[in-house]
Amino acid sequence: MAASSTSVARGYSVRSDPSKVASSPIRTAHTPRSVAACAATILIGFALFWLVPVAGVAVAGVAIAGLGASPLYPSRITALIARFPAAPHAGSTRGALAAGTALLLAPGLMVGLRAVADVRVAYLVVPVLLVVLVVLARPAAAAAATRSTV
Predict the structure, then answer these.
(1) CA distance 72 to 85
(2) 48 φ, ψ to 5°?
(3) Backbone angles phi, psi at 38, to 5 degrees
(4) What's the chain's Rg over C-alpha atoms?
(5) What pLDDT digit, counting tens, does each position of 36-94 carry?
(6) Count of CB atoms within 10 A of residue 49's CB?
(7) Alpha carbon distance 28, 26 (integer Å)
(8) What distance in Å separates the CA atoms of residue 36 and residue 18, rounded to the nearest whole number?
(9) pTM flag (> 0.85)
């Protein structure tokens, strides 16, 4: 158990810093294509994590998923602020509220899923949430494009 916890911690630190540098060109792009590319990268990492029962490959999967996830927060906050050009603080406030709510609720929801299913099955919520992300990014980008041309 300790070895796997250490491996996961290393995987987190491996993905957190380099991914921020590697993803910096994507950060300001809030197009559906950039969101889809991030979601695809997360999905590849998730597949490695979920499908391959080797600890080293699972850690690599977490690192790859982190590379895909790291540009999402800044790009989604940028897109949210762009939806309120006259009051950017409104978008920023909503983004902070959404992030805080997600951080508060996600662990409890995973525990609830784990109570009714195996932990591997509970993690299948990730691809579902990625599909929701890609679908929701399309109308937001279309609304931002409409506002910028008007």
Answers:
(1) 20
(2) -60, -45
(3) -65, -45
(4) 17
(5) 999 999 999 999 999 998 999 999 999 999 999 999 888 888 888 888 889 999 989 99
(6) 21
(7) 6
(8) 21
(9) no
